[in-house]
Design goal:
Blueprint lengths: L2 E4 L1 E4 L26 E2 L5 E4 L24 E7 L3 E5 L7 E3 L3 E2 L2 E2 L5 H5 L10 E3 L6 E5 L5 E5 L2 E2 L21 E3 L38
Parallel strand pairs: 2-10, 5-10
Antiparallel strand pairs: 1-4, 2-3, 5-6, 7-14, 8-9, 11-12, 12-13
């Protein structure tokens, strides 16, 4: 069985603000976006994870992936208007995808989809703040990289978010939603209609998401 050591700070309060953002609201500039209050926990905790064919907890001795950006930290916090979210170490809000599965964990966002929704990849030892250790694991993707899961759901960034704290990926395609620290969808702030995803990057060979076959 894989073992992992993580520094875990357990949230003692998560304050959800459910009012939806007004037009033009920029959460990145809001002074109300603060981490939830947390209670001090033991500096480190060793957790033995159950192994399964399709889901695995990150192993501390796993070699880092090469030539990929790793998500080194998961932060559970509450932000103005949206409420409970999970961000990476740089403050980018993370999402989950309805076409994935959580039991067992499996990612179905590959190729052009993964260019628009970069998976949160791990070397097996993410630092956790405000996210319970027992909610975090990993799943091996088709290309052999390991993706973090929260509540069993693989998590992603969105290239349509231009700076940390934005959530322009909320409800895109009716299948993408901001993920909460327990892995559930955050449905506090839903846009009118169904937003479309931005196109994959130009260097992927397509400038038009609609004409590229990308439909997530």
């Amino acid at each position: 069985m894989a073992q992992m050591k993580r520094t875990v700070i357990v949230a003692s309060a998560m304050v959800a603000l459910t009012a939806c953002a007004p037009a033009g609201y920029d959460p990145a500039n809001s002074s109300a976006a603060e981490p939830v209050a947390v209670a001090a926990a033991e500096p480190t905790a060793t957790v033995e994870a159950e192994a399964s064919p399709s889901a695995e907890a990150p192993a501390a001795d796993a070699p880092p992936a090469e030539d990929v950006d790793l998500t080194e930290k998961l932060v559970g916090k509450s932000v103005a208007r949206m409420g409970k979210v999970v961000t990476d170490q740089d403050g980018w809000i993370l999402y989950r995808f309805d076409k994935d599965t959580a039991d067992p964990p499996s990612s179905n966002c590959v190729d052009k989809c993964a260019e628009v929704w970069p998976p949160a990849l791990t070397d097996g030892n993410p630092e956790l703040t405000g996210v319970s250790d027992d909610k975090v694991g990993s799943v091996t993707r088709q290309d052999g990289t390991r993706q973090l899961t929260v509540g069993g759901w693989p998590v992603y960034r969105y290239i349509g978010d231009k700076k940390p704290g934005q959530w322009k990926g909320q409800a895109v395609g009716g299948t993408w939603f901001v993920v909460q620290p327990d892995g559930k969808k955050n449905l506090s702030c839903l846009p009118k209609g169904t937003p479309k995803a931005v196109a994959p990057p130009a260097d992927s060979g397509s400038n038009d998401a609609g004409g590229s076959g990308y439909s997530y």
